[in-house]
Batch of 3 targets.
Target 1
Amino acid sequence: MPAGNVLGVFTVSTVNVNGMRAAAKKGFVEWLAASGSDVILCQEVRAEAGQLPKDVVAPAGWHAHHAPSAVKGRNGVSVYSRAEPSEVRVGFGEAEFEDSGRYLEVHLPGVIVASLYLPSGDVGTPRQDEKERFMAAFLPYLIELRGKAEAAGCEVVVGGDWNIAHAEIDLKNWKGNQKNSGFLPEERAWMSRVFGEAGYVDVQRKLDPEGPGPYTWWSYRGKAFDNDAGWRIDYLVTTPGLAEKCTSVVVERAASYELRWSDHAPVTATFDFSPE
C-alpha cells in the first residue's frame, strides 16, 4: 500500500479511447499533451505497446503503464501518472481475467488509482455470461481493496468504462433499454452494491444527484451525438474520504461530431486537499 498523503489539488481523468491507434491519429495525443491531470486512465486500447507511437507508449512527463489483452486487438487498459508508482498491479486475482486487459492498478502516494474496462455483455450470449462472472468476482475485490486502503491510511479511485448505466437519469432512452445489457435490473443492482455494500462513491452523482446525464458515450449510428442521446457508463468511483474532497467532475464532450476522437468523452474529476 502507498505511503504518504495526497497533497494539494489532485486531478484524475478517464476515457475509453475506442482503439488507441485510431484515437492517436484523431486527437488523443494532443489531448494528452494539453491535459493538466495527475493521472489519466484509458480503456479499450486494443493494441500492444509495440503497435503504438512513442508519444502514446511513453509520453514525456508521464509514467506510462499498459495492460494489453492476451487476445490481440481486444480490450486493453493503460494508466498515465505524473508521479512514479510504488507498485503496479495487473488484474485483480481472478485467473480468468488476469490477462484480459481489463484492470490495471497503480499505487501512488496516499492513493491507489485503477483503470477498469468492465465487459460490455450482450443478453443471451456468452458475452453476458462473461460480464456476470466478472462482476461476481470484482465486487469482493473492491471490498477487499477498500479495506486494505483504509488500513494503510490511503484512498482509492477506480475509474473507467463500467458498461452499466446505474439509474434512469444515466441514459436518454431508459424505457427502451430495460432488457438490454448495460441497463438490466441485475446490473443496476450490482452497481448499487458497489455504492452500498462496498462503500464507494460515484463522484459525479455526489456533485450532481439530479441529472439527467451528463452522458459519456454516444453511438456512432444515427444522430445520437447531435441529439445527446447517450449513456453515462464512464465513472470515477472513489472511497468516501476522497469523495469528500471532490470539487468538480467534468465530461469533456467534443464541441462537434467531427472533433470526436472516440465514441466516449473523457471524464475529469478534481480533488482539493489544500489546507483550509
Target 2
Amino acid sequence: MPLAPYACDAARTRGRRHAETPAPTRSDYQRDRDRVVHSTAFRRLVYKTQVFLNHEGDLFRTRLTHSLEVAQLGRSIARTLGLNEDLVEAIALAHDLGHTPFGHAGQDALHECMAEFGGFEHNLQSLRVVDELEQRYPDYDGLNLSFETREGILKHCSRTNAIKLEMTEPNGVGRRFLDGSQPSLEAQLCNLADSIAYNAHDVDDGVRSGLLSLEQLDEVELFSLHSQAVRREYPALQGRRLLFEAIRRMLSAQVYDVIEASRVSLLAAGVDSVADVRSNAQRLVCFSEPMREAGSALKRFLFANLYRHPQVVDTTAMGKQVVRELFEVYRNDPSGMPIDFTSTGRAERGIADYIAGMTDRFAIREHERLTGRTLF
C-alpha cells in the first residue's frame, strides 16, 4: 500500500546525528529497526517485568513480549492508514529500552534516588540508551538512529529535560515539548498501540495469576460487551477460551476504532503533509470519545484491582527496596560496577544507567550478593 501524503517517508528523513552511507537494501527506518533488535538493551527486555516479576511465572508478559505486541498492533493500524510500518515497528520495539527492573515500581524508586541529581524518566532513558549507552560501533556511541525513530521513542519529557536536550541538540527531539508541536503520526500511533496492548495483556495476566476473575471483569463495560457477545455465540464456552476470545474481540474493537476515528480527524484537520501534522494543535491518531472513555474505565479498574492488589504491592515494594539499596551500595563503593558506568561524568547518573539496565533477576542476585540478604 502506498504511503499517505502525511506519512513519514524514509527518503525524506531528517537524518542521523552522525552521517552514514545509506544501506543498499534497506531504508533508514528498516535499518533502525534492525539495530534495535540486535541491541543488548533489547535482549534484556526478556527478563524485565510488566506487572508480575520475572520469577513469578514463565507465561506472564515481559517488556520484550509487550514490545512485540505493540509492534504488531502498530503495524496493523499503520498499514490501513497508509503510515510508515517500518518506522512504527522501530519505535515500538525501542520504546521500553530504558525501563528499569521491577516495572514502574523500579522506575519510581530510581527517580526518588535521583531526585537531587536530575531525576529519572524511563522515556528519556530509552533515548539515552539508543543515543549513548549502546556501544556497538567504532565511530560513535549509541545506535545512531534516525530523527523520526528517536522522536517516537521520547513519548514524554519534562520541560527541564526538554531544555537540556534543546541545548545539546537545537531543534531536535526535545523541541516539541517546548513549543507545543506534535510528533509524527507514526509516533502518535505507537503511543496508542502501547495503551491498547497494555490493557489487553494485563487483563490476561491478571486472570492467569488468579488476582482477577471473569466475574470482576464483567463489571467493566469494554470487556463485558465482548465477553457477553462470546457467551451468546458460544453458550458452552468458559475458562481461558472464553477469556481469549473476549480479549481478541476487545483488541479488534479498539483497533478498528482508532482507524475510523483517526480517518475522521485527519480529514477534518485537512492535513496533507508531515509538516501539517507537526503544526496541528491536536493529536490526530486517536480513539473516538466513547472508546477513549471505555479504555480509561478499564485502566481505572486495573489500577484498583490489579496494580494495587496486595500481592502485587508486596512484590513491587520489595523491588523498590532492591533498587534503593543497590543505589546506596554503588554510591558508597562504585567499584562494584563495570568501569563503563564509573566514567560517565556524574557518578549518580552512571549508577542510574547501570541499575536501569538490569533485568529483574540480575538485580535480585546483585542485591543478595552485595547485601547478604534475600528479599524474594
Target 3
Amino acid sequence: MARRILSAALILVCAAVPAAAQMAMEMRSTTEFRVCADPANAPMSMEDGSGFENRIADLFGEKLGLPVTYFWFPSGMGFIQRTLRAGECDVIMGFAQGDELVQNTNHYYTSIYGIVTRQDSDLASVDHLKDAALQGREIGVVAGTPPADHLVRAGLGKTMHGAALMVDRRVQDPVGDLLEQVRSGELDAAVLWGPLAGPRVKDDPDLQFTPLLKEEGNPRMFYRITMGVRNGEDDLKRELNSQIRRNQDEINTILRDAGVPLTDDYGKEMLE
C-alpha cells in the first residue's frame, strides 16, 4: 500500500514539472525582449531609458534581434508576483544571485557596498567601518540593508541614521536624500550600495565613493547580480547565459561608463 502511494506521489510530481515548464513557455514572448522594471530606480532603471540596466537590456535586445519593451511597476512588495509571474515580462534585470523568487541566470557583474564622504572631509581616507575616525560621527544607511548590521557591530549604532528601504521611488529618493545630507554636512558619511551610489558620485566635485573591501563576517557586503526569469524557463536562462558569456566585455563597459564599482566574484578586489 505504502509503495503504491509513493508511486502515485512521484507520478504527480513528474507530471507537475513539465506542466510548470509548459506554462512558463506559453507566457514567454518570442517577438520581444520583455523587461519588467521600476520606472524611477535611478541610476539603474528609468522610464526614459537612461539607466544603466536599460542600456544592458538594449544590448541584449540587439544581440537577440528583438525589440526591447517594458512593463513598468514600482519595486517593493509584490513586484515579482505582479510582473514576472503574471506574465507581463520575461526578464527582470539586476537581481541578486540566490533569490528564490526567480530563477537566476549566471551573474553578469559583482558589486559592493561602500562609504560616501565629502572629498574634503577628514573621513575621506576611511575604507573600513571599524576605523576609529568614524566613532561619534553621523552616518546614514538605508534601513534593512547589510551595512546596518556592520555599523552596529562597529559601535556606530547610536549615531546611525536610517532611510526607508521600501518606498515608491517615483515620489521618494532615499539614496539621493542621504547623498545630499552628506554634501550639506548634515551627515558625515553614508554607507550605500555601489550601483546606486557610485554612478551618482562619479563626476561629483564634492563627494566620493570608497568600496568597503575589508569588512568581515555576515551579512556579506558584495553581491553577484543576475537576471531573473520564471521557474521553468530553462531555455531562456541558457540563452541569456550564453549572451552574458559572449558579451561580458560590452556589459563591463556599460557598467564602468555608468560608474558602477565592480569587484571580483568574491568582493576582494576592484576590477579595472
